[in-house]
Amino acid sequence: MFRLVLFLYDFFATVCFILFYPFVAIARLHTGKDTNTRRIKLGLFKNPELGQRVIMFHAVSVGEVLSLEKLIKKTKETFNDYKIVLTTGTKTGQELAHKKYSDIADFITYFPFDFPFAVNNFLNKINPSIVLIAETELWPDFAIQCKKRNIPTAIINGRISDNSFPSYKLLKPFFSAVLNLYSKIYTQSEIDNQRFISLGNNPVNTEVMANLKFDIDKVPSDIDLHKNTSKVIIAGSTHSGENEIVIDVFNKLKNIHKDLKFIIAPRHLERIPEIENILKSFNYNIGYRSKGNDFTNSDIIILDTLGELKKCYAQCDIAFIGGSFNSTGGHNPLEATIYNVPTITGPNIKNFRDIYGILIRENASKLVKSKEDLFECINTLLTNNEELTDMSKSCESIFESQKGALDFVINKIKELLGVDE
After folding, report:
1. Where are the domains of the chain?
2. pLDDT at residue 370, as a whole number
3. Is there a common fold for 47-215+404-417 and 232-401?
4. What would the pLDDT profile of 66-101 be if each residue is shown by its tens digit?
5. What's the CA gap between 344 and 360, in Å, rounded?
6. How many other β-carbons are positioned within 10 Å of the β-carbon of residue 20?
7. Which CATH class is domain 232-401?
8. What DSSP letter does each residue of 20-84 carry, written as one string?
9. Which of 27, 73, 138, 215 lies deepest, with the highest CB count within 10 Å?
10. pTM: predicted TM-score of the whole model, two decimal places
11. Cβ distance 38 to 25 under 8 Å?
């Protein structure tokens, strides 16, 4: 049954590609978009000549690329006689991969289209010793071809979301066949582990590893803003349109909580004049981090320096994480959570949906849908100190429960490669 399902997928994937790709190519050629990217995804790129020892990572987009940072660095240190290859599926993921890993990875490229011609071209040139795929990127033909070549292929940080699980169950015969092509599946949680097993994956090959994204370190904070007994709210990584929202919310909160302080940290420093213009209508004492101002004489501090946002989170009681009231898709809330600071996000969290899923479920974060909701949420936390304390404790306990994912994966790579300790 498994072989029949996979044969049919292979056959139809190839037929569909042959039938529809020419039309897509013509349309893309007309618009001038990503011609070279398509060639790369067909496996038509220059042979990088990596040798016989290659560890390949695949991260589909921005969130997955970020989640692999410590693992890729640790892998480079541990397996220094292996070449590192990193692939992505999206343009934004590719751009970030080159930005973050150009000095670490030996080759960065796109993941191939999932049909035999492209996959085999890719594997012939990369020749990986092992493939590690972040989260739940299931590409049947890629898995088929790796299995034929005896290349160990593992899913790491594996997960199946609440929204996706019902769809997976409807197609259980297909996904059961695909999942059993993978050598190992290492999941973020016991819930994810049971979901993979319920879809037909062999329990022997499925194991809980915790979540790589939580394997981060505190940045020692040498900042002292002299907050004393004041409560401090921070709006981190705000974008255009969000600055108006968070400043208006702070102004309303300030009328109720007289001693309240505020830090605003725009994602892009060129937004600072925009923030200053918004604040002109309010009678606040404004300080600037670049000038060494603190809360002794300031109600609001504008973080106009680079590389200090994480340190400022350590000075706060509540954090709003920006990029979530527009189309950006949010920013990483764990930079605040690591300091036991509860986070609040707007509705658009596509880049960190899995992290927020855990944080919200464990009462370490809250999602709001409007400016009014944001005001009500922060006001409740400022009024009810017990609830704020509970959320802070939840932040701490989450990191305790997620420890060890990095070392877990490194040890599993050794096992799959047959490398001695």
Report:
1. 7-36, 47-215+404-417, 232-401
2. 97
3. yes
4. 889 999 999 999 999 999 999 999 998 999 999 999
5. 9
6. 10
7. alpha beta
8. HHHHHHHHHHHHT--HHHHHHHTT-S------S-EEEEE--SHHHHHHTHHHHHHHHHHTTTSEE
9. 215
10. 0.79
11. yes
